[in-house]
Amino acid sequence: MTYDVVVNVSLKEAVLDPAGQQVARVLHNMGYAMEDVRIGKQIKLRFQAADLTEAKENARQMAEKLLANPVLETYEILVTEP
Amino acid sequence: MNFRDVGLTQEEFEIIQSQLGRNPNDLELGLFGVLWSEHCSYKSSKSLLSWLPHEGRAVVQGPGENAGVVALNDRLHVAFKVESHNHPSYVEPVQGAATGVGGILRDIIAMGARPVALADSLRFGTDNSAAIIQNGVVEGIGRYGNAIGIPTVTGEVAYSSVYDKNPLVNVMAVGLLPLDRGVNAQGARPGSYLVLLGQPTGRDGIHGASLLASQDFGDATEHMRPTVQVGDPFMGKMLMEATLAAIATHKLDAVQDLGAAGLTSSVAELCYRSGVGATIRLEEVPCREQGMTPYEIMLSETQERMLLVVSPDNWPGIEPIVQHWEVPYSVIGEIMDEPHLVITMRGDIHAMVPPEILAGSCPSRPARSEWANEIRQNVPHLTSFRPLTFDPEQALAVLGSVDCRSRHRIFERYDSMILANTVWGPLHDLAILRTKGSKEGLAIALSGPGRYAARDPYSGGLAAVSRVVGLLAAQGADVLGLTDGINAGNPDKERVFRELTGLIAGVADACNIFAVPVTGGNVSLHNETEGDSIWPTVVIGAVGRHHHPLEPVPDSPWQEGMDIVRIYPGGDWSLGASVFELLFSQLSAYPRPDLERIRRVYQALDEAWNKIPSYGVRMIGAGGLFVAATKALLAMPASLGMEISVSPDDAVRQLFSEVSGQFLIFCDPQATPRLMELLGPGIAGEIIGSVTPDSNLVIRAGRAHRFERTKLDRTFRFGYGG
Amino acid sequence: MKVGVIIFPGSNCDRDTIEAVERLGMEAIPLWYTRKSLTGIDRLILPGGFSYGDYLRSGALAAQAPIMEAVEQAVSRQELPVLGICNGFQILCERGLLPGALRPNSSGEFRCTWEYMRITSVPRGFAGLKEGDVLRLPIAHHEGAYAVQPGQLQSLFENHQIFLQYSDETGSVHALTNPNGAVANVAGISQGLVVGLMPHPERAMASYLGSSDGQRFLKAWLGEGSQ
């Protein structure tokens, strides 16, 4: 079956996000009250898997091995069933 | 908490107890842990480094400050230093390398100098992950240097499996300052404010220096992995502008950057050098995270921070400057007379230690000068490897090997031209920069093949210095000073400490013979994983005064009929430690450079500019004569070629020997006799060929071997068979 | 003539640009990004660099800077020649003062090299450059691949807005001379008095620096060039 999987990669809470900082600053200057901004990545995958469990497991492995950098980032996986 | 938890030994702990007259509390123990770490205290290398000469006519500031300073002329000074970021670059290549660049730039800025150039010396492994690490490191160096706007103008890279799990990232920064702009960390006066500028403090890299950089890697280090520091070149740029503008007012007592061991090291060093004490109120330190403890705030290695010391009277003149550059800041304490570093949080005293004990009392490992003497006398046997026939395929394999081939895939990812001073950039063996408003320019070279030190570290130390001094001599540039980046394994092992002894003795002896001073540098030890250590590796950065920077001595010929002369300092044509040997035999010891003869070669080259109408010169290095000639050919107009003859019965050694002190000179046949005269007695200068109108390289070794330019170009750019 | 050079937080080619302008005998006026007026400025340069660290998208954050209001107004009144170099070009596109956008290089990597490029059409107000001239200038960028919406390219060519294309030494434009994946090798575009280009003319002011074609280009933009 074909699964659509979204992997959201974000910086770990304690890791400095310089890009988020500057976006927050500019939004603030534009008049938007801003408490925090953190920037992540969204990766959309489409692939075949036998079932939901396998799809999730495969996505988890991809995230661990490539999509996220375990030193700096965390990730979450959202799977849409076909 | 126990003293072992912070990396101290029993002996060190006892010294702390006796000097303090009591047991340190946990925070104090943490402070000692980082400051007495190898990384901060140089306890294993300090006594060896005392062998290096530090005096020279141009030296303004020797070792001990954030960077060395030398005089370019009567208007400009040059601040420069090399620093390593090896361990962080293995843990997180992009950020590790990026923060390495940021760190060395802040050292230069803290001397009051505006950075004008970066150079990097890299070592990578040969396994599958090495390419990933290299890509990350190059990305990180580029990301930081490009964004902050300092050009990366020269550098080098080499490969060996010994660097698989211990890549080396040594970065050199060079800055310029007007004569009256000098500042340092020695001027802090009682009553002055301590102002912390830059990035708010987070839980970044706590114990990064003391544990990661001061112990060997292994499974046990996995859980100690701290929050990795992220470099922010944007904040770095704003911090640089704010700091330089503040220094330009001449109203600061002192400046100190925050690097390894963060606030702890910064404040302790500053107080120790200035002979004062300080009170720090931790509640005034801007923090990025909630609930940070005194221990975390003091040991955090958050990047892009700088400490200014400024009197209350002068602060109103400085504050608007910092505000203009939109850099976060806070007055976090004051300097005081009493020689104590007092750390408080909301009125409670959390630590009280004399800076002199913290920063000045760590016991150091004694140097073994008898080892150095033994090493000097113990000349290793040279290889008898002497292939009989010249094989053109082998020549191409050397040219296209990882150690010789073009570095364009790396250096094109660095901005090498910003600031518009780069006359010679990474296409050449050294960089030449003009300086705006002065006739004199800068010659910058960075080099130090680990291969040469692998079997005989002493020889490697001699060769590293010899090479950079020669690169400058070929331009007729005066060497103003050197900076040394020393990298080795675990110094507790006798073998490693012996290697380190040989390496540093080699650097020291060469500096003495060439009469060039070392004004500072960096030592990185414990480059060792699961018991396997790297080759002892020294990289030497040189800064020189170039007398005609807009008109460098060319490194390739430019017209048909020019003579190609080889200068050879004498001795055996050994293949020891050459790339050819690495590929087709087994790595052996590098032949010890004959520095007395080499010094005379350099003198001749130095005089050539004034005595010979026009000529070109190129040093022979990795890959020997064949690779040097090919590089010169590829830099010539495409219509020109070269024909070179070597003796048929010793062709391979003559073409691929990497013995120190060899050069190719290109000159008009009428000027050649004049050149030979300059060389003086005992130095061999031989016309080995000429520039032809046929665009290819012909090597005559008995019979003629013809190498098509396109083939050479492809092999050099993309590798053998690429 | 007073040439304003905007300094955004993170601009890093501002000094080089100011020196280049002064070398050509003009007065260069540094303008901090918080300024709200451009009174007294005859020409304006947005220099290269990494404004706001190039975070989010190159040029996106600087496009919202206070001074950009004033730039937009001056452009709409068609009274101020504006030149955006590298990051300045990106800022002008992000602000909508030039059409199109700059995407990451096709290699995914930063690239700093010398390139040849051809003048495809001479923008308004330029003196001393003609169609078919070839310049040698350095590029240094991570996001320099010019991109447009489908169908837009044709009209940009027809309106002579595409003024600079990466080429070989002889001015011939083809895939092998495209350093960054820009559509149709576009290196620079114009719209009215607004001009943007990725290469850095301010770094090519003397042959000992690699080329003096940058000097020629800037002179032409200043209206001072001669054939």
UniProtKB/TrEMBL annotation, chain A:
Compartments where found: Cytoplasm
Predominant cellular place of this UniProt entry's protein: cytoplasm
Pfam families for the chain: PurS (PF02700)
InterPro entries: PurS, PurS-like_sf
Metabolic or biological pathway: Purine metabolism; IMP biosynthesis via de novo pathway; 5-amino-1-(5-phospho-D-ribosyl)imidazole from N(2)-formyl-N(1)-(5-phospho-D-ribosyl)glycinamide: step 1/2
Tagged with keyword Transmembrane: no
Keywords: ATP-binding, Cytoplasm, Ligase, Nucleotide-binding, Purine biosynthesis
E.C. number: 6.3.5.3
Gene3D superfamilies for this protein: Phosphoribosylformylglycinamidine synthase subunit PurS (3.30.1280.10)
One GO MF term: phosphoribosylformylglycinamidine synthase activity
Swiss-Prot/TrEMBL GO biological process terms: 'de novo' IMP biosynthetic process
Single GO cellular component term: cytoplasm
Catalytic activity line of the entry: N(2)-formyl-N(1)-(5-phospho-beta-D-ribosyl)glycinamide + L-glutamine + ATP + H2O = 2-formamido-N(1)-(5-O-phospho-beta-D-ribosyl)acetamidine + L-glutamate + ADP + phosphate + H(+)
Annotated SUPFAM superfamilies: PurS-like
HAMAP family the UniProt entry points to: PurS (MF_01926)
Function: Part of the phosphoribosylformylglycinamidine synthase complex involved in the purines biosynthetic pathway. Catalyzes the ATP-dependent conversion of formylglycinamide ribonucleotide (FGAR) and glutamine to yield formylglycinamidine ribonucleotide (FGAM) and glutamate. The FGAM synthase complex is composed of three subunits. PurQ produces an ammonia molecule by converting glutamine to glutamate. PurL transfers the ammonia molecule to FGAR to form FGAM in an ATP-dependent manner.
NCBIfam families linked: phosphoribosylformylglycinamidine synthase subunit PurS, PRK05974.1
Family to which this protein belongs: Belongs to the PurS family.
Subunit and partners: Part of the FGAM synthase complex composed of 1 PurL, 1 PurQ and 2 PurS subunits.
Family matches, as PANTHER family: PHOSPHORIBOSYLFORMYLGLYCINAMIDINE SYNTHASE SUBUNIT PURS
Stated name of the protein: Phosphoribosylformylglycinamidine synthase subunit PurS
Organism of provenance: Sulfobacillus benefaciens
UniProtKB/TrEMBL annotation, chain C:
Major location (coarse): cytoplasm
EC number(s) stated in the UniProt entry for this protein: 6.3.5.3, 3.5.1.2
Catalytic activity, reaction form: N(2)-formyl-N(1)-(5-phospho-beta-D-ribosyl)glycinamide + L-glutamine + ATP + H2O = 2-formamido-N(1)-(5-O-phospho-beta-D-ribosyl)acetamidine + L-glutamate + ADP + phosphate + H(+); L-glutamine + H2O = L-glutamate + NH4(+)
Gene Ontology molecular function terms on file: ATP binding; glutaminase activity; phosphoribosylformylglycinamidine synthase activity
InterPro entries, alphabetized: Class_I_gatase-like, PRibForGlyAmidine_synth_PurQ
One Pfam family in the UniProt entry: GATase_5
SUPFAM superfamilies: Class I glutamine amidotransferase-like
UniProt record, GO biological process: 'de novo' IMP biosynthetic process
Location of the protein in the cell: Cytoplasm
This protein's UniProt keywords: ATP-binding, Cytoplasm, Glutamine amidotransferase, Hydrolase, Ligase, Nucleotide-binding, Purine biosynthesis
Pathway(s) where this gene product acts: Purine metabolism; IMP biosynthesis via de novo pathway; 5-amino-1-(5-phospho-D-ribosyl)imidazole from N(2)-formyl-N(1)-(5-phospho-D-ribosyl)glycinamide: step 1/2
Residue numbers annotated as active site: C86, H200, E202
Domain of life: Bacteria
Any one annotated GO CC term: cytoplasm
Protein function: Part of the phosphoribosylformylglycinamidine synthase complex involved in the purines biosynthetic pathway. Catalyzes the ATP-dependent conversion of formylglycinamide ribonucleotide (FGAR) and glutamine to yield formylglycinamidine ribonucleotide (FGAM) and glutamate. The FGAM synthase complex is composed of three subunits. PurQ produces an ammonia molecule by converting glutamine to glutamate. PurL transfers the ammonia molecule to FGAR to form FGAM in an ATP-dependent manner.
Quaternary context: Part of the FGAM synthase complex composed of 1 PurL, 1 PurQ and 2 PurS subunits.
Protein name: Phosphoribosylformylglycinamidine synthase subunit PurQ
Protein species of origin: Sulfobacillus benefaciens
